[in-house]
Design a protein that fits this description.
This protein has 433 residues and is of the alpha/beta class. It folds into two domains: 209 residues, no CATH class; 103 residues, no CATH class. Helix content is 19%, strand content 28%. It contains eight helices and 23 strands. Strands 1, 2, 5, 6, 8, 9, 10, 11, 12, 13 and 14 form an eleven-stranded mixed beta sheet that branches. Strand 17 and strand 18 form a beta hairpin. The longest helix has 15 residues.
């Protein structure tokens, strides 16, 4: 079951589905949308070629009117979409219906004819991370916030003009959605992020997974290294500006650039079919380049078929491995090889892709949507041919406890210190001389 011919009650949700190449998406009649355009973010590799988009190359951290840091975006390419589709309305309730239970309101203001040098960039603040400033072209700026006063403050700083209240666009992003099939609930999805970029990006990633199995109980959680950033952000306002850039550079190296930037932008989520989980590097020899359980495989081009790897993923658990391995079953195994290895069976990928995945040493178990379910060393495969029965060979007890830790009802707090015991006599008596 896919999202084709689905009925939704949210314009942004409908637009995300359409841009992701799902056809005949309709809106419920009760949906009211005053804007001519829909605005959102999503991974560039999910966008239908028919839609224009603005790939983002750099991100920036601002404090009031000062740009503290501007760095390139690493990892998956993010794109900013401006879509003007007019969807058909319907009063039908049969078939696949996606209903918004809780939504979060954002406000967008467009500053036109304002030349700048930040095209294809996005800036955010760290005080509350409730502002996204997008530069889709050389003379247009979009300011997005969940607070009108905050919106007004940044518009005035950027343009030196007072915000026109009548030109503010109100955008509702689903925070919780229910998926119905013929009036029967088949799934409930919660969006854990809070920023405009983070919410729309996470929504597109979850829809990507559900497009292959719409009943999957998919959940999202943050990578545990995110809390290193959050600890710093909590005390950010007490740090002098002249020290901020130095601390940012330190965090870039401590967390690795990929982790730091993606966490600041709220796109560093992990996805799981069961419980919320953390994941951290057990050992550098096991994990590399950020490819861990709960992340998506990168876009992999199959040179011999002129297709992407995602186009031939047919089973829920598929082994992706080097053609140097030989497994008994081929129904749930996809062999990849570098062009230099002509004598082996399998699909050709570029040498850089083969090296990036480090297929000489490890194999991957992925879902039909390309979500990594497991990574293990080739030496642990031992010719096991049924991917659904594979268990990780890692024995690190700390990691197992982190992966299975359910944070749904967990609220971090400081430990309560024991109260000091003070002994004294009552009533007080003056000391005898």
């Amino acid at each position: 079951m896919s999202f084709n011919n689905s009925i939704v009650d949210n314009y942004i949700l409908a637009s995300i589905l359409e841009v992701s190449n799902y056809s005949n998406v309709k809106l419920t009649e009760k949906t009211i949308y005053k804007n001519n355009y829909q605005y959102f973010f999503m991974p560039s590799n999910m966008i239908n070629d028919n839609f224009d988009h603005h790939p983002l190359d750099t991100y920036g951290i601002i404090n009031k009117s000062k740009l503290l840091m501007r760095e390139p975006i690493t990892g998956d390419q993010i794109s900013y979409i401006i879509n003007n589709t007019e969807f058909t309305s319907t009063n039908e309730t049969s078939g696949l219906v996606i209903e918004t239970k809780i939504s979060k309101i954002f406000y967008l203001y467009e500053i036109k004819n304002m030349p700048h040098k930040y095209a294809n960039s996005i800036f955010t603040n760290l005080k509350s991370k409730n502002i996204n400033i997008v530069f889709p072209s050389n003379d247009i700026i979009h300011v997005i916030s969940d607070n009108i006063n905050n919106l007004n403050k940044y518009v005035k700083k950027l343009s030196n003009k007072i915000l026109d209240i009548n030109s503010i666009l109100e955008i509702k992003i689903p925070k919780e959605i229910i998926i119905n099939k013929n009036n029967k609930i088949i799934n409930n999805i919660n969006i854990m992020n809070d920023t405009f970029l983070g919410m729309t990006y996470q929504l597109t990633q979850i829809l990507k997974i559900l497009s292959k199995d719409i009943k999957s109980p998919i959940k999202a959680s943050e990578n545990n290294t995110n809390y290193i950033n959050k600890l710093f952000f909590t005390f950010y306002n007490f740090i002098p500006n002249f020290l901020s850039s130095l601390i940012f550079k330190f965090l870039l190296r401590l967390n690795k650039t990929y982790n730091f930037s993606n966490q600041v932008l709220e796109i560093d989520n992990l996805y799981n079919f069961e419980n919320y989980f953390f994941s951290n590097s057990i050992d550098e020899e096991y994990l590399t380049n950020g490819y861990i359980k709960g992340k998506f495989l990168p876009r992999i081009k199959l040179l011999d078929k002129n297709k992407d790897l995602k186009d031939i993923l047919s089973n829920e658990n598929t082994i992706i491995c080097s053609s140097d391995l030989s497994l008994k079953s081929t129904s749930d195994v996809i062999y990849l090889k570098a062009p230099s290895n002509k004598n082996k069976e399998g699909h050709n990928v570029s040498q850089s892709t083969f090296d990036l995945l480090n297929l000489d040493e490890r194999y991957y178990v992925v879902s039909q949507s390309g979500l990594i379910m497991m990574i293990d060393l080739n030496k642990n495969l031992n010719d096991k041919s049924n991917a659904s029965s594979l268990d990780s060979q890692y024995t690190d007890k700390k990691q197992i406890s982190l992966d299975s830790f359910n944070t749904k009802n967990f609220k971090p707090s400081l430990p309560k210190l024991p109260k000091p015991r003070v002994s004294f006599n009552w009533p007080f008596r003056a000391k005898k001389q």
